[in-house]
Write a structure and sequence with these properties.
It contains 5 helices and 5 strands. The protein is an alpha/beta fold. Strands 2-1-3-4-5 form a 5-stranded parallel beta sheet, with helices on both faces. The chain is elongated, with a radius of gyration of 25 Å. The N and C termini lie far apart (62 Å).
């Protein structure tokens, strides 16, 4: 995932957006804002969003509707979402939110320290996850392009030599059992 992925803050109240931006500014992450569910979906679908802070109740498309849509689209289904609500967390909202895979449900007014801690953890975890996915794709491409890679239908001249262990104190592996020294205990 590119390092310029942003945290998208979505709320229909400008004062809340300003407060959230002020709380998150010390983290040094790139922040973006949206004032509606429609605008949030457009930004998320354009890419480069690594975390979404999303108000539950907004005119038009609600926060829960945004999450429902995101979970159906492959490119957005793994983006962590923190839902924000100023109306209290009732059991139905919590059940629906966590059923959609929301990372957390935070009540307003928001404690800035607590929010920064959650955001740092979720954003950094998502970036590490994306970096691992990228590395796996690269390794698969290398294996696919390696003529000596394990292919069940291909004939191989023999076993591939063992790779050296990164720790030089570990003795090299032997290529075959015939090279293993035997001791006579009789």
């Amino acid at each position: 995932m590119p390092s310029d992925a942003k945290i998208l803050i979505v709320d229909d109240h400008e004062d809340t957006l300003y407060a959230l931006e002020s709380a998150l500014a010390p983290l040094g992450y790139r922040l973006a804002r949206a004032t509606s569910g429609d605008e949030a979906l457009k930004q998320v679908l354009r890419g480069q969003v690594g975390l979404l802070l999303l108000d539950v109740r907004m005119p038009g498309v609600s926060g829960l509707e945004v999450v429902r849509y995101m979970r159906r689209v492959e490119q957005t289904q793994h983006i962590p979402v923190v839902l924000l609500t100023g109306f209290g967390a009732d059991q139905e909202l919590m059940s629906t939110a966590f059923g959609l895979g929301v990372a957390d449900l935070v009540l307003k007014p928001i404690d800035p320290w607590s929010l920064r801690t959650k955001v740092r953890y979720l954003y950094d975890s998502y970036r590490r996850h994306r970096a691992l996915e990228h590395e796996i794709r690269e390794l698969r491409a290398l294996v696919k392009n390696d003529p000596g890679a394990e292919d069940p239908g291909a004939e191989h001249p023999g076993p591939r030599p063992a790779l050296p262990h990164p720790d030089v104190r570990v003795p090299p592996q032997r290529d075959s059992p015939a090279q293993t020294p035997t001791t006579d205990r009789t």
